[in-house]
Each structure stands twice: as structure tokens, then as C-alpha cells.
Design brief:
Blueprint lengths: L1 H6 L13 H18 L3 H5 L14 H14 L2 E14 L3 E13 L6 E15 L2 E11 L6
Antiparallel strand pairs: 1-2, 2-3, 3-4
Length: 146
């Protein structure tokens, strides 16, 4: 479940060279998601996910919301270190993002913190003026993405 929770932090810091307007918007969307995740704003993160979200694990939007709820309840603080590896935009309405995310949180566990790193492949779609997550795959840095 811990790996699945990582998904929720679709997250995110933009850097790179010249980009198209839709690519800039996607990078801004990712930066906003990171801020909301670090602030543990579950509802705001869920609003960034399309109602029809479905991933290769069979998770739907409600499943991701539950994972976020559990993770945020267990972690006192959440910190993310992100690296956007690639952003591919298709027309003005679809995008794919490959990224690496380091996650750390403080909690009441034995050591008082937890930390992990994951790779993500995100699929985004423009809905009106807003980008929304429609699917994602993620996994450990060296493992297969699911």
C-alpha cells in the first residue's frame, strides 16, 4: 500500500528550457500538486484528478483519495523532492509526464520518519482550462512501473 500511496504525490517541480504554452501549464500543474501535497490538502489534490481516473492497478479516483487520507493521517509533515524527466504534450489537450519523486514524512514510527523514492508516468488531459490526471503508473526507482 505504501507504494500505492506514493502515487498521490504527483508532484513536481518544474525546471527546463524553452517550453510550449501547454507544457508550461503542465509544469505549473505539477508544481501546484507538490505544494498541495506538502500542505496535506487532500481534497485539493483529489480535485486535480479526473472523475473517470483509472490506472493499470485498477485504482479509481476514490481509491486514491482513500490512500491520501491514510497517508496524511500517518504523516505529521510531508516533504517532496521532485525531478521532471520528460514532458510530452499532444496537441493542446493531452500530456504525459515522466518524473522521479523523493518523499519524506515525519511520523510516530520507530525512527520518527519515513522516506522513499519513486518513478512516475502520469497521463494528463485538459478539461476546459484545467489539466487533470486521468491515469498513472508508478514504482520503485529500480522496479517495474505498475
Amino acid at each position: 500500500m505504501k507504494r500505492a500511496l506514493a502515487f498521490a504525490f504527483l508532484l513536481i517541480a518544474a525546471c527546463g528550457g524553452p517550453a510550449s504554452a501547454p507544457e508550461v501549464e503542465v509544469r505549473e500543474w505539477l508544481a501546484v500538486a507538490q505544494v498541495k501535497a506538502e500542505a496535506k490538502e487532500r481534497r485539493a489534490l483529489v480535485d486535480m484528478i479526473a472523475p473517470g481516473y483509472l490506472d493499470s492497478r485498477g485504482y479509481r479516483r476514490d481509491d486514491i483519495e482513500t490512500m491520501l487520507r491514510v497517508y496524511f493521517l500517518r504523516q505529521h509533515n510531508v516533504s517532496l523532492v521532485t525531478k521532471i524527466d520528460d514532458v510530452r504534450v499532444f496537441g493542446d489537450s493531452a500530456a504525459e509526464v515522466d518524473m522521479t519523486v523523493g518523499m519524506a514524512g515525519t511520523n510516530d514510527g520507530v525512527l520518527g520518519f519515513s522516506a522513499n523514492a519513486y518513478r512516475f508516468e502520469l497521463e494528463l488531459e485538459r478539461d476546459g482550462d484545467d489539466w487533470q490526471l486521468i491515469a498513472a503508473r508508478w514504482g520503485d526507482l529500480v522496479g517495474e512501473l505498475e
